[in-house]
TrEMBL record:
Keywords: Aminotransferase, Hydrolase, Pyridine nucleotide biosynthesis, Pyridoxal phosphate, Transferase
GO CC terms, sorted: cytoplasm
EC assignment: 3.7.1.3
Reactions catalysed: L-kynurenine + H2O = anthranilate + L-alanine + H(+); 3-hydroxy-L-kynurenine + H2O = 3-hydroxyanthranilate + L-alanine + H(+)
Pathway: Cofactor biosynthesis; NAD(+) biosynthesis; quinolinate from L-kynurenine: step 2/3; Amino-acid degradation; L-kynurenine degradation; L-alanine and anthranilate from L-kynurenine: step 1/1
Cofactor names: pyridoxal 5'-phosphate
GO molecular function per UniProt: kynureninase activity; pyridoxal phosphate binding; transaminase activity
UniProt similarity note: Belongs to the kynureninase family.
Function comment: Catalyzes the cleavage of L-kynurenine (L-Kyn) and L-3-hydroxykynurenine (L-3OHKyn) into anthranilic acid (AA) and 3-hydroxyanthranilic acid (3-OHAA), respectively.
Organism of this sequence: Hyphococcus flavus
Quaternary context: Homodimer.
Protein name: Kynureninase
Gene Ontology biological process terms, A to Z: anthranilate metabolic process; L-tryptophan catabolic process to kynurenine; NAD+ biosynthetic process
Superkingdom of source: Bacteria
Length: 406
């Protein structure tokens, strides 16, 4: 249904099966939060768990909590919950480290099995390219920077051996056709590491069905695991057994508590663990993931697209160029609009309680996380956006002067 008025948006809210999920979140009064694609807000249960883990488990049960509170299993427990969201076997995902570190581990291990060129797309989230640059230096491997508008045929024709690619692009929110990319990689004898940072928890992924064997992703965006929440690694069991990752820390050992003299990799994806897990953070992520229990991810993806469509439709009046897939097209959870003074506009919106973000040089990015945003919220945010743009209230010294890094 096309939303032409706030009444239409309210009608959609009233019929929205995902609307009750909003109750899991305690968002500040007067704020419309359009930045859950960068840092998800805390679910109430996650804050409760943080308190419980700190005060009861750490504070009272002390070191016994590694066993009694299940701390030692958290990388696997959280991994299994993420696996169900991304269409993977529950044993094939582990939570550990950051996305950057996980890319290093996975790309290094894959490069050993598939010697050749490392590749990434020109406009990819910077850390993906930075890590491959570091690995290329370390191993004297060729590095290919692909045109981000090129498709899989072009990518592998150029000789890519290990490619990293986002499933949802951090600027445009374009969704990659994972199966098509995997098919071409298969023909070329190459492998792909999927960066699911902007995809997990907002689109309906089915990694197994699409033939994806390796992926990494963030815990702090749509999964709402909190600032600096640990990331995850997916490696399909059969493929994982062939991999030796270089950060062979004791937590990835087959029998960590044997304290053996030599390293032996753990089963499957477990070998991607390295050191002691950050339990406070991981407990928060574990509780936050429960908000997704029994949610139909295709409904989440459809709502994210519908919310983005409302915003794009309203923005059409302002004659701004969008770099995101258009109305009705498949898209991840955000839309990005171009405007030379976008930084100031985003600051003016934040001052009015509508929190989006800005990506240099000129992109205003607005995220529509379906678990806690309603159709009316997006309608109201579009109202504020229209007012800021048409009144040019962004053109004020307090907004124009660059102060914030985020
Ligand atoms: C696509 C993508 N990859 C990686 C990252 C960074 O991950 P980390 O800071 O966990 O290394 C982000 C966001 O920060 C991202 O958007
Ligand atoms: N990870 C971040 C951080 O530590 C500070 C500020 C922002 C972030 C982000 O997540 C940026 C985000 N990945 C992006 O898509 O721009």
């Amino acid at each position: 249904m096309t939303v032409h008025s706030r009444k239409d948006a309210e009608a959609l809210d009233a019929a929205d099966p995902l609307a009750p999920l909003r109750e899991h979140f305690d968002l500040p009064e007067g704020v419309i939060y359009l930045d859950g694609n960068s840092l998800g807000p805390p679910p109430r249960s996650a804050l409760k768990r943080l308190h419980e883990t700190a005060h009861n488990h750490w504070g009272k049960d002390l070191i016994k909590s590694w066993n009694t509170a299940g701390w030692i299993d958290l990388p696997k427990t959280c991994g299994a919950k993420i696996a169900t969201l991304v269409g993977a076997d529950p044993n094939d995902v582990i939570v550990c480290d950051s996305v950057s570190v996980n890319i290093f581990k996975l790309a290094s291990a894959l490069l050993k099995l598939h010697p050749g060129a490392l590749a990434y797309e020109q406009d990819e989230f910077p850390t993906d390219g930075y890590i491959l640059q570091g690995l290329a230096n370390l191993t004297n491997s060729p590095l290919i920077k692909l045109n981000h508008q090129g498709g899989p045929v072009e990518a592998f024709a150029g000789g890519a051996s290990v490619l990293i690619k986002s499933a949802v692009h951090y600027k445009t929110a374009a969704i990659a056709d994972i199966a098509a990319w995997e098919a071409e990689a298969g023909k070329a004898g190459a492998v792909i590491i999927w960066d699911l940072s902007h995809a997990a928890g907002v689109i309906n992924l089915d990694l197994e069905a699409a033939g994806a064997r390796f992926a990494v992703g963030c815990g702090y965006k749509y999964l709402n695991g909190g600032p600096g929440a640990p990331a995850f690694v997916y490696a399909q069991r059969k493929a994982a057994e062939k991999l030796n990752q270089p950060l062979s820390g004791w937590m990835g050992h087959a029998h960590a508590f044997d304290f053996a003299g030599d390293y032996a990799p753990g089963e499957g994806v477990k070998r991607f663990a390295c050191g002691t897990p950050p339990i406070l953070s991981m407990s928060v992520l574990d509780a936050a993931l429960d908000v997704f229990a029994d949610i139909d991810m295709s409904a989440v993806e459809a709502k994210a697209k519908a919310l983005g469509d409302i915003f794009l439709l309203r923005a059409q009046k302002l004659s701004l160029e969008s770099v995101s897939p258009g109305i009705g097209e498949s898209r991840g959870g955000h839309v990005s609009l171009k405007f030379k003074d976008g930084y100031a506009v985003v600051q003016a919106l934040i001052a009015r309680g509508v929190i989006g973000d800005f990506r240099t040089p000129d992109l205003m990015r607005f995220g529509f996380a379906p678990l806690y945003l309603g159709y009316s919220d997006v309608w109201d945010a579009a109202d504020a956006f229209e007012q800021v743009m048409t009144s040019e209230s962004w053109n004020a010294p307090e907004f124009i002067t660059r102060k914030a890094v985020i």
